[in-house]
Amino acid sequence: MSAQIEVVVGDITELEVDAIVNAANKQLKGGGGVDGAIHRAAGPGLLEDCRRLNGCETGDVKVTGGHDLPASWVIHAVGPVWGGDKEEKDRLLAACYTTALRKAEGLGCASIAFPAISTGVYGFPGDRAARVAVKALRATLPDCGSIEKVVLCCFSEESATHHRVALEQ
Ligand code: ADP
């Protein structure tokens, strides 16, 4: 039995899950949007950890502890900036979900929450990003035996609708 994927509307920093995913930038130096919210809620120790990681490539992830967050781990994923070669951007976005999930499995996590990576400042269309996310998660979950629950943590009803529609397909 594959894990359950659920959609919630809320602030990812408040979720009681083993790992939350951050929509980070390549420098891993914090920023706006969900990245800023995660750094504020985790406290300054998170930035200290991030500084030691030498940045992160687009489509890849790096892991830190959760510091003051309820989550034990933060998996920092760098999503693509929308524009140019759309199929390539889909591939890079899918890689964020796949790699983060595999990393969580490696950490022994039972639960993980994702924000809608790249759909804020990075400009990815919300409906397309949701389809990419759901497809990548469904393809990877069967290999990730420790994962019992995946939360798609949306920050608006519109984003939640995109994810619910993607899950129905
Ligand atoms: P990116 O640069 O990858 O586009 P953003 O942080 O700008 O990252 O946006 C990614 C998504 O995260 C957007 O859908 C945004 O609305 C959402 N978001 C912003 N703050 C939070 C939060 N505290 N919890 C969950 N999602 C959030």
UniProtKB/TrEMBL annotation:
It comes from the Bacteria. Gene3D superfamilies: Leucine Aminopeptidase, subunit E, domain 1. Its EC number is 3.1.1.106. Pfam families: Macro. InterPro entries: Macro_dom, Macro_dom-like. Signal peptide: none annotated. GO terms for molecular function: O-acetyl-ADP-ribose deacetylase activity. Keywords: Hydrolase. The keyword Hydrolase applies. Residues 1-169 form the Macro domain. PANTHER family: GANGLIOSIDE INDUCED DIFFERENTIATION ASSOCIATED PROTEIN 2-RELATED, MACRO DOMAIN-CONTAINING PROTEIN. This is O-acetyl-ADP-ribose deacetylase.
